[in-house]
Design a protein that fits this description.
mainly beta; 5-stranded mixed β-sheet
Length: 410
């Protein structure tokens, strides 16, 4: 097959065009080289970089060597071969734990501990109620040694729960004076007989936690005198804001009553005088005084509300009720201030100051009368001596008669 003439012309043009293009490329390269035969670069021994502009560099003429250059990497010696060329590296010694011997359980013989009960004696003026002892009987009955019938165990005895005792104030309510809550001063407020005030304790209410403790929670400051106070008959109670409206609802729990003849053992003046007479003179502003405070304001009567005879329940008590009973000497109750505190009971011995124009009434140990009938050696109730405090000697407890041994069989 013979190609047409047109195709032959195309191949002829292609054969001539490619060599001519290569020749032109070589000529252009030679011309370019001949135009710029050489060139120069601005270089020298001094660097043109500013070290002050580099990061993490210090200013100065002489720069220190970077620590990264002097200090090898921490993993350099242990990268391929751990511990190779460690030099000063030290490794802790290997500890091999050995199993300990298996402990042998031994049952020690049972020991019987006998404790003597502490003596309980009545107060010289009013008995003090004590919580009954919880008796835990054996789980099974007791079988007598002679082979009789088995005695059933006695029932379990649980102590009774104290019942709170509420009271309502008698008399006429009057407005409480301002600034009656807080630190004592030399002023006083006279509450007339047959009147009472309700004090809002504000941001410092009395809190009854229900846990028995002997710390004092409240202090009642009597009117200050130079060397003593004349303790007036007064009744103090605490009350809750049940409706959360800031209004006293007329019910309170009595925590202190000076004048009813019963010692307030939850206060620091409980054992001063059994009769609790009106205007009772008590030494004040003296280191030997039982009153609370710092002279010339050592006129405070401390009260423990948790151990009051009214058994106030757990809660927050916003109000304080102060009552001047009508049975006083018609001179009312002189109040300096009241304050919520937390004071530890140190059981200080009270001291009585002598009455004005009267012989000293310092506390003395009562003597036991010996004019009883023959054979009766117990002193009268009103004349019994005070029970000794912290008497380490146990009471005389009659010993049980020896149990009869069963007859031996031949």
């Amino acid at each position: 097959m013979i190609p047409p003439p047109r195709e032959r012309r195309d191949w002829t043009l292609l054969v001539f065009i490619i060599p001519i293009g290569i020749i032109f490329m070589l000529i252009a390269g030679q011309v370019a080289i001949r135009l710029v035969p050489e060139w120069s670069l601005n270089a020298g021994m001094q660097s043109n970089l500013d070290p002050n502009e580099l990061p993490m560099q210090q200013n100065g003429l002489v720069q220190p060597v970077l620590p990264a250059i002097l200090t090898p990497l921490g993993w350099l010696d242990t990268f391929l071969t751990p511990g190779a060329g460690a030099g000063g590296n030290s490794f802790p010694p290997f500890i091999i734990f050995e199993p300990s011997k298996t402990p042998v359980v031994t049952n020690p013989p049972p020991t019987v501990v006998t404790t003597q009960p502490s003596p309980t004696q009545p107060s010289p003026t009013a008995p003090t109620a004590t919580a009954p002892t919880v008796v835990t009987p054996p789980a099974t009955g007791t079988k007598p040694p002679d082979g009789g019938e088995e005695t059933p165990p006695p029932p379990t005895t649980t102590p009774p729960t104290p019942i709170p005792v509420t009271s309502t104030p008698a008399g006429t309510q009057v407005s409480a004076p301002p600034n009656i809550v807080g630190d004592p001063d030399l002023s006083f407020y006279n509450l007339q007989d047959g009147q009472y005030i309700v004090v809002n304790l504000g941001t410092t209410p009395i809190i009854v936690e229900g846990t028995p403790d002997t710390d004092y929670d409240l202090v009642y400051y009597e009117m200050a005198n130079p060397i003593n106070i004349a303790m007036d008959q007064v009744i103090i109670g605490i009350s809750q804001d049940i409706n959360n409206d800031g209004v006293f609802d007329g019910i309170y729990y009595e925590v202190f009553n000076w004048g009813d003849g019963n010692p307030d053992l939850n206060s620091n003046v409980g054992s001063i005088a059994g009769a609790e007479t009106d205007n009772q003179v008590i030494i004040a502003n003296n280191p030997s005084s039982v009153l609370y405070g710092t002279p010339p304001y050592q006129t405070g009567v401390l009260i423990d509300v948790d151990n009051a005879s009214s058994n106030p329940p757990i809660g927050i008590y916003q109000f304080l009720v102060v009552i001047a009973p009508e049975t006083s000497a018609d001179d009312g109750a002189d109040i300096n201030s009241v304050q919520v505190v937390e004071v530890t009971n140190t059981s200080a011995s009270p001291i009585i100051a002598p009455l004005n124009n009267a012989p000293s009434v310092a506390k003395e140990e009562p003597s036991v009368q010996t004019s009883e009938a023959p054979g009766d050696t117990s002193p009268p109730v009103d004349e019994q001596p005070n029970p000794p405090e912290n008497d380490p000697s146990p009471p005389d407890i009659p010993s049980d008669p020896p149990a009869e041994e069963p007859p031996s069989t031949p």
